[in-house]
Amino acid sequence: MGDPKFPSKHYNTPSHPWQKVRIEQERTLIHQYGLKNKQEIWKANTKIRSMRRQARKLTATSGDDQAQKEKGNLISKLNRLGMLEQDSGLEDVLRMTPENILDRRLQTQVYLQGLASTPKQSRQLIIHGHISVDGSVTRVPGMLVTKLQEKNISYSPSSALNSDLHPVRPGTQETYDDSPEIEETVEKEPEDKPITEGTKKETSGVEKPKASGEEK
Fold it and tell me: Which residue of 6, 83, 92, 182 pairs with 88 in a disulfide if CB–CB is 3.0 to 4.6 A?
């Protein structure tokens, strides 16, 4: 059973730690969805594998009444989460990818609805309690959002982001003074004229004293 203080992992890690193609794909997903680490990708992969396993099992027993009932429940669940249409089949479940899970995360939905400028900022707003779902503050970026909850995502009532002038809000522009700008006129200094022997005395004013060794 294990110690409740140390719960078991709810995801499966990759079979091999050094796979170049997989590592590049994970880096792309982390940058695209603003994820904290690769564990969130592994959790999505584990959920997708579980759904595929269930779809393959139901495909093998498609003639059973219980299988038809479980198939309807699976499609309805995925439709409620916004991953598949209601008239989808088991073959559509087998074609699902981890992106279907990542697209339904609260962090992604906050960014897609324009409540944050970047996916990373979306995660920060959720953790700091600025986002509410169905009127209640939610601090879990990895929460899977249903179609009904997707329409009720907004800033929390106590958040300062409810103000349209808040600088963190996307699209907020700084207000400038509408008064006309005053152009500063800078007088240009007269260009230096070439100094000749005739004008040298006039500009200097006082002749330099001759050295003691020089003849008068």
Answer: 92
Residues paired with 144 in a beta bridge: 105
201 in any annotated domain: no
Chain centroid to CA 182: 41
pTM of the model: 0.74
Which pLDDT score, from 0 to 100, does residue 35 have? 95
Q: Which residue is listed with tokens 């609805």?
A: 113
| Residue 61 banded pLDDT, cuts 50, 70, 90 | confident
How many whole angstroms separate alpha carbon 139 and alpha carbon 126?
5
Are residues 90 and 129 both part of a single domain? no
Domain that holds residue 62: 17-98
Residue 95, burial from CB neighbour count under 10 angstroms (0-12, 13-18, 19+): exposed
Contact between 180 and 186 (Cβ < 8 Å): no
For residue range 109-150, list pLDDT tens digits in order.
999 999 999 999 999 999 999 999 999 999 999 999 999 999
The CA distance from 95 to 109, in Å, is 22
Domain count, the chain: 2
> Residues 131, 171: contact at Cβ < 8 Å?
no
